[in-house]
Write a structure and sequence with these properties.
3 domains; 14 strands; Rossmann fold; elongated; 458 residues; alpha/beta; N-(1-d-carboxylethyl)-l-norvaline Dehydrogenase, domain 2
Length: 458
């Protein structure tokens, strides 16, 4: 089959793979190729056991793979044969040198830019899909266009706004698609080409065009605002526990205000994932670099509140369990940073597990999708932590259960059966406020939730 155009994506991770699968499904007239330096990851994408879990992704890949969607380790060939290149490589927080702990580490991104230049024989549109600091496009343009090949590259920003666990739905029915470019005739022409891809299924009114700088900054700011709401409601959850107000009632009341709205007002043990903390700290570093110290401190406090909430959860466990968990079996229900994903990056469960292990607790972890990643995250404690797929077995002999991921599975468990196998008095610490606390208390549990008065039998 002859395709209208060939689109390459460099990076076969949480963003690149699903995004290209959706474009392939909606645009059978385009050829989509996904490449990655990790050959094992490419093999997984070509197998029945995909490297990431996302509801609906298996079906989407099966529908398009080897028809107009291809996964390949041949990066140079992919670059050479494509007209449009999406760059979706990792941009972690820098761990060394200037900006360590805050700035984005752009070494993989720059290596990719130089690889694109080295392998290209024709002009191309390069699309920033990775989350990058504002004005990164300018640096990429300089690397790509200072060449002696007589070829030209237009750099377009098209940040992703996916939420893990709902990524396929977010791709098919996005709130908006943002495409930014230089406001030059060549830049606008390139921007329109990217807009035309999404216009195959996204209503035009939901496709937002902007300058490249506004597009780059919008991604960081969007994540900062979402995380800010979580930290805001979590800060109030601490006040609720002191005043015997109920955080769910407070969140519901303020969420009914149309100016505020109900989303991202669910109090919890804290936010996680690969984006929120990384993007906020990147924003903090950018503000600092422009001398905007008060702005930087404001946004940094969002991360500080999140870390405080995680620490507070451990302190609540210790205080309620007679000030010691040493030698006690604690079952952690959930390790993924959120439900419907196996991703554990920056998961609050990592911090909670570390804190309990430092207190010499015997920690057992159960999660329907994240045990593999949990084992990697806690590899230094492998002799002191165990992993159990079955939550009933995880809770056997436990002094306490801590719910750390909002999997629907945990709402429907037989907690009377579980109680009979636990050490008494038995505790449940609901870090996601998903269980029926009064019902559990009536069964005989001591229940400590986020932002609510504790329900205890002593």
């Amino acid at each position: 089959m002859d395709f209208e155009k060939t689109i390459l994506c460099i990076g076969a991770g949480y963003v690149g793979g699903p995004t290209m699968a959706m474009i392939a499904a909606k645009c059978p007239h385009y050829k989509l190729v996904v490449v990655d330096v990790d050959k094992e990851k490419i093999r997984a994408w070509n197998s029945d056991n995909l490297p990431i879990y996302e509801p609906g992704l298996d079906e989407l890949v099966r529908e398009t793979r080897n028809k107009n969607l291809f996964f390949s380790p041949e990066i140079e060939k992919g670059i050479r044969e494509s007209e449009i290149i999406f760059v979706s490589v990792n941009t972690p927080t820098k761990t060394f040198g200037q900006g360590a702990g805050k700035a984005a580490d752009l070494q993989y991104w720059e290596k990719t830019a130089r690889e694109i230049l080295a392998s290209s024989t024709t002009s191309k549109i390069v699309v920033e899909k990775s989350t990058l600091p504002v004005r990164t496009a300018s640096a990429m343009e300089r690397i790509l266009n200072e060449n002696s090949k007589n070829i030209h590259f237009e750099v377009v920003s098209n940040p992703e706004f996916l939420a893990e666990g709902t990524a396929i739905r977010d791709l098919e029915f996005p709130d908006r698609v943002l495409v930014g470019s230089r406001e030059t005739p060549e830049g606008i022409k390139a921007r329109k080409e990217i807009v035309e891809i999404y216009a195959n299924w996204v209503p035009r009114e939901k496709i937002v065009e902007s300058s490249v700088w506004s597009s780059e900054l919008s991604k960081l700011v969007a994540n900062a605002f979402l995380a800010q709401r979580i930290s805001s409601i979590n800060s109030i959850s601490a006040l609720c526990e002191k005043t015997e107000a109920d955080i769910d009632e407070v969140a519901y009341a303020i969420g009914m205000d149309s100016r505020i709205g109900p989303k991202f007002l669910k109090a919890s043990v804290g936010f996680g994932g690969s984006c929120f903390k990384k993007d906020i700290l990147n924003l903090v570093y950018i503000c600092e670099s422009y001398g905007l110290e008060k702005v930087a401190r404001y946004w940094e406090s969002v991360v500080e509140i999140n870390e405080w909430q995680e620490s507070r959860f451990i302190q609540n466990m210790l205080r309620n369990m007679f000030n010691t968990v040493a030698g006690k079996r604690i079952a952690l229900f959930g390790f993924a940073f959120k439900a419907n994903t196996g991703d554990t990056r920056e998961s609050p469960a990592i911090y909670i597990a570390h804190g309990l292990l430092e207190e010499h607790a015997k920690v057992v972890i159960t999660d329907p999708k994240a045990l593999g990643n949990a084992k990697k995250n806690l590899s230094t404690f492998e002799d002191r932590v165990s992993f159990e797929q079955d939550p009933y077995r995880a809770a056997e002999g436990a002094h306490a259960i801590a719910v750390l991921t909002e999997w629907d599975l945990y709402k429907g468990l037989d907690y009377e059966r579980i109680l009979k196998t636990m050490v008494q008095p038995a505790f449940i610490f609901d870090g996601r406020n998903i269980l029926d606390h009064q019902k559990l208390f009536n069964m005989g549990y001591n229940v400590i939730a986020i932002g609510k008065a504790p329900l205890k039998h002593f």
